[in-house]
Amino acid sequence: MSKKKIIILIFPLILMFIINGFSLLDIDGIDLKGIILFSLVVIYPLSFFIQGILCELNNIEVLSALVISSLGFLGVTFIFLNSSALGYLIFYLIIELIGYFIVKGYRKLITKGEI
Fold first, then answer.
1. What gap in Å lies between CA 26 and CA 29, rounded to an integer?
2. CA dist 88 to 1, 34, 37, 92, 93, Å?
3. Contact yes or no for 70/23 (Cβ under 8 A)
4. Which pLDDT value is given to residue 91?
5. 3-state SS, one letter per residue, for the chain
6. What is the pLDDT of residues 11-66, one digit of tens each?
7. Residues 46 and 14 sit within 8 Å (Cβ to Cβ)
8. Which pLDDT does position 115 carry in this prediction?
9. Which residue, among 110, 97, 35, has the nearest Cα to 70 in the 3D structure?
């Protein structure tokens, strides 16, 4: 497996650990809880969406990306967050599949010459 595919597979995982790692720092004047909440609602879904798109563009099996990202989010949840964050996981997986199928559908339309 190429380095590019590995990076695509672990992209959300790396992002989640970096953002939540900052929560361990005590930085004056920065609302770390706000950053984590923003990440849960905006950054993580966006990273899953991008991963879905990249999986289709690079012919990577989306199921393996879903499993790796899900396990990574479970790890982040139990290390940095609490179990109430697990409710977001289904939302993230749906967002990733939407990104994947948008690109897949667009590619099919292009190959048929409809676009």
1. 9
2. 30, 16, 11, 6, 9
3. no
4. 94
5. CCHHHHHHHHHHHHHHHHHHHHCCCCCCCCCHHHHHHHHHHHHHHHHHHHHHHHHHHCCCCHHHHHHHHHHHHHHHHHHCCCHHHHHHHHHHHHHHHHHHHHHHHHHHHHHHCCC
6. 898 998 888 887 777 677 777 778 888 888 999 999 999 999 999 999 999 999 99
7. no
8. 65
9. 97
C-alpha separations of 31 from 13, 23, 78 in Å: 22, 9, 21
Quote the percentage of the chain above a pLDDT of 90. 47
pTM: 0.88
Supply 20's token pair: 């939540």
Q: How many CB atoms lie within 10 A of CB 22?
A: 15
pLDDT at 82: 84
Q: Give the number of other CB atoms < 10 A from CB of residue 34.
A: 9
